[in-house]
Records
---
Amino acid sequence: MWGALEGSIVLWAWMLSLYTLLLILRHRENARDLYPWALSVMLGVLSFFVLVMTLPAPPFERLTPIPANGRGLNPLLEDTGMITHPVALYLGFTGFTVPFAFAMAALATGRLSDAWIATTRRWTIVAWYFLSLGLLIGGWWSYHVLGWGGYWAWDPVENAAFMPWLTGTAFLHSVMIQERRRMLKLWNVGLVVMTFALTLFGTFLTRSGVIASVHAFTQGTIGVFFLSFLALVVLLALALLAFRWDDLRGQGSLDSVISRESTFLLNNVMLVAAAFTVFFGTVFPLVSEALRGVKVSVGAPFFNQVNVPLFLALIFLMGVGPLIAWRRASVDNLKRNFLWPVLIGIVSAAVFFALGIRSTLAVLTFALTMFVAATVALDLVRATRARLRMQERLIPAVGGLLLRHNRRYGGFLVHVGILVIAVGVTGSHAWSVQTETTLKTGETATLAGYSFRFDGLRASEESNHFKVTGAFTVTNGTTRAVTLLPAKKFYPQEQSPIAYVDYRLGLVDDLYLVLGDFARDGSQATVKMQVNRLVSWIWIGGLILTLGAALAILPDRKPAR
Amino acid sequence: MTRAGRVLGSLALAVLLLAAPVAAQQPATPISESEAYEIASQLRCVVCQNLSVADSPSEMASQMRELVRERLRAGENREQVMQYFVDRYGEWILLAPRRSGFNLLVWVLPVVAVVVGLGIVALLLRRWTRGASSPAVAAPALDPAMRERIRREVERDE
């Protein structure tokens, strides 16, 4: 359905028209002055994609000569994850067009008051929700299909989706300062434009084949179209910004450096710096090739090293931001809100160290996580207590809290999700182990306390491929033995076989087997065995995160006052 | 990757394997699997798109892993093994560019970005907090319980 370049453009255009329809239904009545402009921008973007569909990438072209059984889908994409991943991702990507349209409308009409911000915020959360979902499903697909034992490769295409996520996240935070303090108007418009431009850039990167990468299943001459459109969008936005410069340059004033405002500013610096790092790292091979004629790679080791400090700083700010007072935090406020969390953070660092965790990074991440979790817990407990004092029962008290202040607690829930993901990422980096051996039938190999027995090979013919399956029995002495059946699939349309991973997920240990070479008579096989740790936390955290985002999208239910 | 790329990759590997016996003749030293893994995770799998030699499930990568172990067994250190691959495939084989020459740029610019960002925020904060140092109005006396309640309401009411 949405295979290859043409399919993705169709999908994009389809999603965008869906959003346009929603925008028409929702805002025809209630945003009269912005609506016509926003709609025009939406339709302008839509017509670009339709143009791409008609000229450089017609989706329904006939193939000549006609292949006997169709061209066939890349077998790696035959997975439910791949049915939902592009849809969610593109719902996220295209979703950022709506905030962009409203930002442009606000600039064009000069109605830069906060109406457009209020309208835009929820749309942005919707787009952010789908983008996060898309990224997570992509990670899951990568983990259980690609067979390299990881979930995130810092592949250019993953980066392309991650950059708008980072700037979108920055916007969702800085927008609160504008709502509260009428500041940062210029910056917020800038972030919206940046996010939208990055989605276009991402599509350009993925779909033009400019950087060879895992996802670049397609090649084409579409790059020129995308780059010119991107330039047009950025220039138009800049021109409008310059035109309204005086109205946007709001006079800022703050009461104190120790306030929520400055935490949010720092958060924005970190997020945008991370986006910049990812951007520069992704395009650096192109720069190097163009300027020096030398091909270089910028991959996972680089991105991990550079981004980890930024993400740690973000986690720290995540603990401070929501609880520090607006305007000016008094010593009393700081003590009230942070004494316990800081203590808990320090104590847990000591406990983790005592438990034998020697990786500095792991201890630091876990301690920060505990600190942030404690701030969230503290806030929730206090708010619940306040409600209980007003003679409410516990369950309705918490429920009412979540629903009535759904934005705040949705945000908290998202933060908790991020924390759980951070634990998963740190753990899987620090403690996953793997090895690779060749086993004869009946032989056993051990890894991390698990023993893997090779029970033999079996060949079978499936509907569209030929499959060789290896059977392995895994035990660790205490739990019941599990049978894992990794396989190699031979597709007629593919040159080399495709590895089919078998795995058993666990809260702490994932068992993960990839079948390598094997003897033709089935007597022996090479197998890559991995015990991946805490990876499941990433999926659990992802679930929490999406629930939180969904909660934040719910309509406000402010009590009538 | 394209088929041509795959063919090129296999050719390159054939060359490497021809060179290997020279190394194999030296006395073998015991090697640590984690060292081999760390080296392999810094090298790009030549037939994949963006995976390291350590991670890739492809056949080519498993042969390259074996090659890494072989060089280690021959007594080479990490730098030498990496250099061996760089000599044959070019800088492209390294997943993180070396911190020297032009490549320094990719390492330094993110740091510059953070520093500049922090600098701007510091400047803004200074400008914005100037002249707002005195509390606007002295709060009228409230009983502490009431003040506490208001504060909580305000804080919660986002």
---
Amino acid sequence: MIKTTTSFIAASVLALSAGLTQANTLKMSYDADPVSLDPHEQLSGGTLQQSHLNFDPLLRWTQELGFEARLAKKWERIDPNTMRFHLREGVKFHSGNTLSSDDVVFTFKRLKESPDFKGIFEPFKEIKKVDELTFDLVTHKPFPLVLNNATYIFPMDSKFYTGKDKNGKAKDTLIKHGDSFASRNVSGTGPYTVSYREQGVRMELVRNPNYWDKQSKGNVDKIVLTPIKENPTRVAALLSGDVDFIAPVPPTDHERISENKKVELVTMSGTRIITLMMNQERVPAFKDVRVRQAIVHAINQEGIVKKIMKNFATPAAQMSPAGYLGHNESLKPRYNLKKAKQLMKEAGYEKGFKITMMAPNNRYVNDAKIAQAAASMLAKIGIEVDLKTLPKAQYWPEYDKRAADIMMVGWHADTEDSNNFYEFMTMCPNTETGAGQYNAGNYCNKKVDEMVALANTETDTKKRAKIMQDIEQILYDEAAFVPLHWQNLAWAARKEVKIAEIVNGMDFPYLGDLVITKK
Amino acid sequence: MLAFFIRRFMQAIIVMFVISVVGFAIQDNLGDPLREMVGQVVTEAEREVLRDEMGLNDPFFVQYTRFIGNALQGDLGTSYFFKKPTLDVIFAKLPATLELVLGATLIVVLVSVPVGVYAAIRPQSWFSKCAMAFSTVGISIPVFLTGIGLIYVFSVELGWMPSYGRGETEQVWGSWRTGLTTADGLLHLILPSITLSSLMLPLFIRLIRAEMSEVLQSEYVKFALAKGLNPMRIYFLHALKNTMLPVITVGGVQIGTMLAYTILTETVFQWPGMGFLFLEAVNRVDTPLIVSYVIVVGAIFVITNTLVDLIYGLVNPTVKLAGKSA
């Protein structure tokens, strides 16, 4: 969504009138604060939220999952392996340095070295500086997701991060488990600079007076971010007026918030799929497609969404949420107890069997309850489940060990693309390539793997969509996993804080564009 | 006296040694710290490299020896999350917790003494009965619920009190920031203090009442009354002094419990203290911070118990601190 001239004029008028009014402060509260000020230290929601405050990406996602030009004003494909980007002129970093291709080159190299981000940039061969404001991103093979991945490039101020800090360490050192210059100091092009930070307690940001985006309607001069971990306390803080904006909002409080006249609840269907993985290596019965089919027919996704998630989720029959290229419209949840029993009988397991199941209890919304519901649904077709739920800190090591016959896992595609789901969740597990890293079901279909590889190099959007929708169909027919639902997202704010326009499905609100109207 | 201190000091060392071994032994079961430090797409191979770098793959004995070696030099490790020495992190949060415990202790003392004494003197009055009934209810409601209930009534519905955090704080000395000197800070302290005290208050009211009733039956009180001394003087000076002996003992032990319950109270109120820090550290598998916290709390226990014993000696001179030798 590139803004037009008329909206520019409107924005300038707004900006002028905003200048006459008092300073706007936004007090907001998330459940956690970012781990570090270094945008490359950890690939997580918190880091990306932080990045959008202190930095700007080359381009960013819109609410409709389209692209919006940011620091790159335009781009074009110059050959199958190369995309050329043109930077905006005269963009200043917080330090006063001017943005140039060198900064992008610096940032790109750092991304390639970051343990967390290098995976995303694996398909990229190199970056080539063309001139001060032009550079090329070159991929190994034709790669359809150049733009998706370019949303992860938040140019850092190369001059600011070059040299040695007072401990004699290079300023651009990237470490996860120690002090570093970049984790405490920041210079980006973003709408806000950090003015105070006490990790885990409070962070204060002030508007960057030289922000390049003069068209932005954002009128928040100061942001005070306080993490509040407990759901009821966070909701109470909003309702009592101690904070203006909170997220996430637990499903149990949606009604209370909707009823309150002073606040507004904004929800959006999310893209994180919650699944159950049936481990075929641990349970021979799961090798039989009829047994897997029986299980997906026994799980009532709609029931779970209605009763446990209070309709705060979308029942799923596949990995890709609506809006993703791979989303296959024709696939619907198939709860049918009679058919499930029939399939168990056909497979010769009429009397059922015993299995173990593990799920986290503080990772996804209502995760433990969902697992309990699934276990009791499986009991109806004779599968006796020994369920164990664990806090996420203990759960993930168990998950890596594939410690139970059925394990719960949720996944959000970092690239906002369907193929990412298949690569991590359903490709044949291969420790060397890292494929199927989260495939705790050990489902393996060479044909699907080939299709995934094909989709990775197909740059024709239509053809690509077809391939990925076909993959969904195969996974559905073979009941490769049990899809449960896509978790929705919810934010709540005082009525004057117009969050509806700036939130998105990735949950990194564009606070630079946030408008607070007068009371 | 010196012998007493030396013995206590030796005890403390042993306690902390045992704690560090236990803390170290269980850390493998706390989860994988790498999982909390890296994003979910990082490969196992990559994580293994990081684990090696951090020395997490070394055998238990090697890791423990390294830890003890550093600990003897005053370095208990570096927090994975805060990336600062764990002791610095903990001591930065200590003031918040101490202020909360102080607030709660004040409430307990100021309320339980008069109420307990009154309930002992006038066991049949309606106020005493109400106080006893309230204390039964109070002791059976979880701290968590009390906190959330108070927030909903006083912050959301009535809007009198802030709902979370410590409010405005001021630098006192060093890294000590206090909320006690600002009106906003004091206001923020009220609800969490009440919540934390709700656990101890019933216990102490009942304890003081029971002890006081017993003392009131004793010969010297009857004699004093018969002598015509001012009843207030008898109750609050002579009788209360003897009532306080068991109360101090229990109080000393309960300070430990109180510290433990700050974990819940601080979590509900997003109070930036040690308890909340600990819970977060557990969630993040920040093992150096967890082990350090346990050691620091162990030290606090030993110190408070030592202080209690000293006070005990002051209140009741018949108690000899150093045992037989003294």
